[in-house]
């Protein structure tokens, strides 16, 4: 699946196998939220982010029906390993069980924090929301820009 920002500045590519990782996790989490991080790279023209890995929820993650707090256990190792292949932290994904793929105010706050955080070093933070259930789901990516502070939906590109 390919996505692009409405204004055409940044696109996102994510393969079905990575979406399958999310679906596997939402099947396991049932009516509770779940999530993880997105790892990948930006193309040389900086026009597209390519997802190379979707993580499972770290072991120390906690969640409920309407909230998810991603843990950090094992994440540093995962990112160090990715870094050797020039792959980096791109953002987050999480699940809205039986809900809509619309970011909550908490989601927007989190994305803003990540885009402004030096430790994440991710000025354009991507958030993928997968909503529904493992049987029937929608996947929607959003992009938060550090400079403008705005979060915009990214759209599907047919190719
Ligand atoms: Zn959310």
Low-pLDDT runs of 5+ residues are none
Q: Percent of residues in helical segments?
A: 10-25%
Number of domains: 1
How would you name the CATH homologous superfamily? Cytidine Deaminase, domain 2
Strand content: 35-45%
Radius of gyration: 14 Å
- CATH topology, what is it called? Cytidine Deaminase, domain 2
Question: What's the helix count?
Answer: 3
- Secondary structural class: alpha+beta
The N- to C-terminal Cα distance equals 9 Å
The main β sheet shows up as: 8 strands, mixed, barrel
Please write the string of helix (H) and strand (E) elements.
EEHEEEEHEHEEE
Q: What is the name of the CATH architecture? A: 3-Layer(aba) Sandwich
CA-based shape: globular
User: What bound compounds does this protein have?
Assistant: zinc ion
The total count of strands amounts to: 10
Strand order of the largest sheet: 1-2-4-3-7-8-9-10
Topology of helices and strands:
Elements: E1 2-5, E2 11-13, H1 16-29, E3 35-42, E4 48-54, E5 62-63, E6 68-69, H2 75-83, E7 88-97, H3 105-116, E8 124-132, E9 137-145, E10 151-157
Bound molecules: zinc ion (ZN).
Residues 94, 96, 104, 107, 129 line the site of zinc ion.
């Amino acid at each position: 699946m390919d996505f692009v920002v409405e204004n055409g500045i940044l696109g996102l590519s994510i393969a079905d196998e990575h979406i399958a990782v999310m679906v596997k996790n939402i099947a396991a989490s049932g009516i509770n939220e779940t999530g993880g991080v997105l790892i990948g790279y930006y193309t040389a023209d900086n026009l597209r982010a390519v997802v190379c890995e979707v993580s499972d929820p770290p072991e120390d993650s906690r969640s409920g029906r309407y909230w998810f707090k991603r843990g950090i256990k094992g994440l540093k190792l995962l990112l160090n390993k990715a870094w050797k292949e020039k792959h980096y932290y791109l953002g987050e994904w999480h699940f809205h069980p039986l809900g809509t793929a619309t970011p909550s105010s908490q989601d927007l706050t989190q994305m803003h924090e990540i885009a402004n955080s030096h430790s994440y070093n991710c000025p354009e933070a991507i958030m993928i929301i997968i909503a529904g259930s493992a049987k029937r789901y929608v996947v929607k990516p959003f992009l938060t820009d550090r400079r403008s502070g705005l979060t915009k939906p990214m759209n599907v590109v047919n190719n």
